[in-house]
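[job 0412] stage=complex_fold ligand=zinc ion status=START
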Amino acid sequence: MQKCPAPAVRAFRIELPDGRGYWSVVDDEYAKVAVAGRFLFDLRFARDRAESTTRTYAGELARFLAWCTSTGRSLEQGASDLSRFVLALRATPIERAGAGQGRPPGPGRVNHVLSVVREMYKHAVGAGTVDPSVLAALYEVGDDRFLPVELRPEGSGLRYRARPRHRLRSSRSAQPESASQAEWEGLLEAATSWRDRFPLVLLWFCGLRIGEALGLRKEDLHFMDHASALGCSLPGPHLHVVRREDNPNHASAKSRHNRSVPVGTILLAYYDRYAEERLACASANRSDFVFVNLFHAPLGAPMSASAVRQGLRTLSRRAGLARAVHPHMLRHSAGSKMAEAGVAIDVVQELLGHRSITSTQIYVHPSRARMRQAVEAVEALSVKRREQRRKEQG
Ligand SMILES: [Zn+2]
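[job 0412] stage=complex_fold status=DONE, emitting structure tokens
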């Protein structure tokens, strides 16, 4: 039996000698909680997931492992009593600042914690550090043919078909929390600098992740009609979201693929004002980063995500909003607006940089009007083709 870690389990950032980082879970003696640590390390470096993903995962695992510890459960007992953990989770308000702070986590959040916990167990079983029997507590396996991959003999070629036992039904069909037009306009009016307005406009129209925005370098902005002089053949103003490992502000593009995002005239106008404001700060001019400190030390240093979140909270308060707007809510707004504007789902997926199209699907709700348009479009096409055929025959 593997013993659970010592008390005060929490997420902790670890930096490798080459500067790359990942998040792990530590107890109060800073000893790595072995099972979670190995899982998070492999997630980051064997499966090439973003540092920000390991940070989220480490936070979720710390909650679970802290619960195991405080209730005196081993890892195996934790798995078999997972429904008790769900009860504890639903009774514990969210401490972390941001949307939902002070309220118990909703079904979507609970399901996310559970999926991370299951991933950790699967990894541990694969590594041989936890008994495979825990998977039976986590998954409903109707038939031997549908055993999780960790329980199957190698090369059996069967498909993974286990159903998680613990899942909360989500009442709202996982509709993401997005900022409204009124909230966004309120924030823009409350902002006192172009440095604060530009990210509001960038996230709102282009839907970048905050880490992607903060990782932008000046060289990634091709804000001209033709960027051929810069060795880029893409037409029209656009920016490049490039994944880099050496960002000092830990900003990282979550997607493993680089992508380019077209930008419109409103965004360009805001950028011009910001660029002008930035010129007045000598230390800022020496930095390659787009988003830098202009108003407090260290001047010219890349902005951190926590500074942006804090800034948005302050702006929300100043604007008299009923809730604090979080950077991710602006990204969700961009996705919803694209879907509302009838943009095809594969285009939305590419613009937002979603690895899987299921992440994009949350924005798309087929309305009666759009369904009617679709049928009418098919009719119109059919009529057009019939006329073409008549012309050819006649
Ligand atoms: Zn380009």
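The pocket of zinc ion is lined by residues 222, 227, 232, 234, 238, 240, 260 (CB under 6 Å).
[job 0412] exit 0
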